[in-house]
Amino acid sequence: MAQVTNFPFGVTSFGVPVVPSAPVGVGGPGGGSASTGQMAGSQAFFVNSAVALAADGASSAGQTQGGQGKNPYRPFKTINFASKQCIANNGDVIYVGPQHVETISAAASLNMAVAGVTVIFLGNEVDRGTINFTATAGTVTVTAANVTFVNPMFTNSIDALVNGVVVSAADFKIINGEWRDGSATNTLIQIRTTAAGTRMQILGYKYYEDQVGGGTTKTEAIRIVGGSLHEFDDVNITGSFSTGTINNITTLFTSATFRRCTLGNTNAANLCIAVLTTSTGYLQDCMLSYTATRAITASHILSADMASGQCIPGATPTIIAHS
Question: Which of 58, 262, 274, 290 is least surrounded by Cβ atoms within 10 Å, i.e. has the fewest?
Answer without folding.
Answer: 58
